[in-house]
Amino acid sequence: MSDLQTRRTFLRAAAAASAAWAAVDLAHVEAALAWAAHQTGQGRREFAILTPDQAAVVDALTSRILPSAEGRPGAHEAGVVSFIDKSLATFNAAQKKQYVDGVRDLNRRASRKWKGTRGFAALNAAQQDELLHDIERTPFFQTARFDTIVGTFALPT
After folding, report:
1. CB under 8 Å to 118, separation ≥6 — which residues?
2. How does DSSP assign 43-78, residue by residue?
3. CA-CA distance, 29 to 92, in Å (whole number)?
4. Could you report the average pLDDT of every consecutive run of 10 residues in the chain (157 residues)?
5. CB 82 within 8 A of CB 35
6. Quick check: 105 and 135 in contact, CB under 8 A?
7. What is the DSSP string of 124-142?
8. By the 8 A CB rule, do 58 and 99 touch?
9. What pLDDT sits at residue 150?
10. Nearest-CA neighbor of 60 among 94, 106, 96, 105?
11. In 3D, which of 150, 28, 45, 138 has the Cα closest to residue 91?
């Protein structure tokens, strides 16, 4: 696939995600952001949609997309996993299957590539990056990346 085709694929995915988000009632987005901020502020995480294992994978995934650096908080510190979970329970419910399937696929790939691994969240950062490089053009990764960026930069940390 040429670089131009890759860019076009990314732009199409970004446009589709943007259109979906534009149609969302902003009150639902603000409620999900407030919920994530509350969860992070309380130092606890309760999940409406994601199981604890799925949440660990989403947290690891989002932490590799936007890691903390030079003292600045990343997706983990911003509580993006809570934002994504709340969005899947409300305005973004249509993407629940995509997240469940994407998490399952990441765990399967991790276990297949590194025998004896318990899944994506158990990998070290370099292994996670290697695996994410393999899926970076998938709709799941593009969705998770978009949600991570929105959740990280919209959440007050």
Report:
1. 111
2. T----SSS-HHHHHHHHHHHHHHS--BTTB--HHHH
3. 9
4. 52 54 56 58 74 96 94 87 89 93 97 93 97 95 93 67
5. yes
6. yes
7. -HHHHHHHHHHHTTSHHHH
8. yes
9. 85
10. 106
11. 28
Between the CA of residue 97 and those of 5, 22, 101, 105, 141, what are the distances in Å? 27, 21, 6, 12, 13
Joined tokens for residue 96: 């629940």
Rounded to 10 degrees, what is the CA torsion of 20, 24, 29, 32?
-80
Task: Give the Cα separation of 150 and 80 in Å (integer).
Answer: 9
pLDDT at residue number 104: 97
Residue type at position 7: R
pLDDT for the residue 4: 47
Q: Amino acid identity of 25?
A: D
Say what the pLDDT of residue 157 is. Answer: 46
